[in-house]
Amino acid sequence: MDIRCDFTRLRGIRPLPSLNARFWSLIVEQGECWLFCGKARSRFGYGLFSIPVESPRGPAWRFESAHRLVYEVIHGPIPKGLDVLHSCDRPACVRPEHLRTGTALDNMADKVARGRQPRGGRVPGIRLPRESLPTRAGEGNYHAKLSDVAVVEIRKRYAAGGISLANLARAHHVTDVLIGMIVRGKSRKGAAGPISVVPPVIGERVGGAKMTADGVLALRAAYAAGGVSIYRLAEQYGIAFQTVSNIVRRQTWQHVPE
Predict the structure, then answer these.
(1) Which of 36, 78, 137, 208 matches a 20 to 30 Å C-alpha distance to 165?
(2) Which contiguous run of DSSP H or E holds residue 70?
């Protein structure tokens, strides 16, 4: 490893004698790359190195991207609006020969060319058939919570009957909305398993519903016959008078025919 970086030359950095030694003690050669192995990382995997700086309040420390520091020491200041890109496609690498400047568009072009852009991603200035991009659908998606095996099991259990979407959601630690999309085939289309028709959650299928379809028909008939107020009907059926009013005016339970 050819150590040629002297970070004390960078503008704004306090020239501590131990700075260079501390940085290079965190570098490990792996193949052709020099990997920064410090504990601090950005959410994209870039190494972060704490450097001593002068602040308006006196001496201080701040984190900087390790690969950007190396680039500035070797090649000079990074032009405004440009990023430091890796030719080796390894965010932790700080080898100067693997670093170059480029725009965000250049960075996205590299991502597509190296097969790291999920299928369907839209990159400005890049026109490719969807089939030429790597797929990240189903269990291959970075955020997938269910495997294809689990999806098949969910569809089979729901198709067999006797279990609700909510119970399946609790069993698999996901939302009932996701379970509903899975059993209806709206999500995880590439997985196997029977596709079901999920009846809408309305009327007496709503959790905690106090009325049934037959009860709604009887209530409407009693009100239409006259001689009974919505307050008396509310008392009789054990519901609020506003609920009775909505039922007889067909603001709710609209799916129940006359």
Answers:
(1) 137
(2) helix 66-75
Beta strands in the chain (DSSP E): 27-30, 33-36, 48-55, 58-65, 83-86, 99-102
Distance CA 41, CA 47 (A): 5
% helix, strand, coil for the chain, step of 5: 40, 15, 50
pLDDT tens, per residue, the chain with 258 residues = 555 577 666 777 777 777 888 888 888 888 889 998 888 888 888 999 888 877 777 788 888 888 988 888 888 888 888 999 988 888 899 998 899 998 888 888 877 777 666 554 455 555 555 555 556 678 877 678 899 999 999 999 999 988 888 899 999 999 989 999 999 999 888 899 999 998 887 888 777 888 999 999 999 999 999 889 999 999 999 999 999 999 999 898 988 887
CA distance 64 to 51: 7
Q: Which helix (H) or strand (E) holds 28?
A: strand 27-30
Is the whole-model pTM more than 0.70?
A: no
| Phi, psi for residue 208 in degrees, rounded to 5 | 80, 10
Q: Which positions ≥6 away from 178 have C-beta within 8 Å?
A: 169, 187
What SS3 state is found at 133?
A: coil
> Could you tell me the residue ranges of all domains in the chain?
7-102, 145-183, 203-248
Token duo for residue 43: 């959410």
